[in-house]
Amino acid sequence: MWTFILTAIALVMLYPFLFSLLAGFFPKEDFTHISSLLPIPGRWVIAWYKSLFEPTMLRPLLNTVLRTSWYTLIVTSMAFFVGYVLARLQFPGKTFFFFFIILIQMVPGVLTLIPTYLLMAKIPLMGGNDWFGAGGHGLINNPLVLYVLIGPANVVWIYLFRQSTAALPRDFEEAASIDGSGFFRTLLTIILPIQKPIIATIALNTAIGTWNDWLNPFMFVNKIEYTTITGYVGLLVSALSKFGDRNYPLIFAASTIATIPPLVIFLFTQKYIVQGFASAGIKG
Hints:
The protein has about 280 residues and is mainly alpha-helical. It has a single domain, classed as MetI-like fold, CATH 1.10.3720. It has twelve helices and no strands. It has helices at about 1-25, 45-50, 55-90, 95-105, 115-120, 155-165, 170-180, 185-195, 195-210, 215-220, 230-240, 250-280. Helix 1 packs antiparallel against helix 12 (about 250-280), helix 3 (about 55-90) crosses helix 11 and helix 11 (about 230-240) crosses helix 12 (about 250-280). The longest helix is centred in the first third of the chain and has 34 residues, at about 55-90.
């Protein structure tokens, strides 16, 4: 019985992806005549999928890969080092700093959209701005803007790594210190191998979240050569409000291509994600 229920739930969850996949094969003029729950094209067209792999459209895909790799490296490294310091070292203001991280999590992300946009637009000496951040557009429509925005939600990984490290015994580190191992050597040769599950969890969730992020590229970039694949989908959807032909099959094709990589990553790495969250919940 439970197998039947879980299978039904899985099919319901999979339905939007199947709809998007099939809708991308429709001719543009036939899409408005869909009447079935699961659209089956009368004429199969692969032009929309092929167009996403043309040289012009490969740029957003490359931008997505580069941005995802960059944020995965930065966020994982930040969680690793900052989380370890908060778990092991003693210094003035440690408690305040830790609760400040918790406090950041309570700020809704939507409240930071306008201040972040103004900050990116008023950066001095960028995009024609003077020393006071006036006269130009700053980092708006600049490819660098996609690599300098680290959202407040990413600090949750610092908290998780801190909790996971605090549960570990200090015996390994003390033994390494007696053998003459320094701070960074201990981190890389002792803590890093032990903490592989939580590090994998942080890296995988960051990669999936960054790949699926459409809001930041959509807000700060409106040029195809600078945006990401999800940002490009956002630009296509926004174009629906304009007059002229509305190419829904292209939107669904782009959405499908944007969905496949994180879906594959999750399917093959979900056990590491579960292990990582489980290790962060252990109390020492």
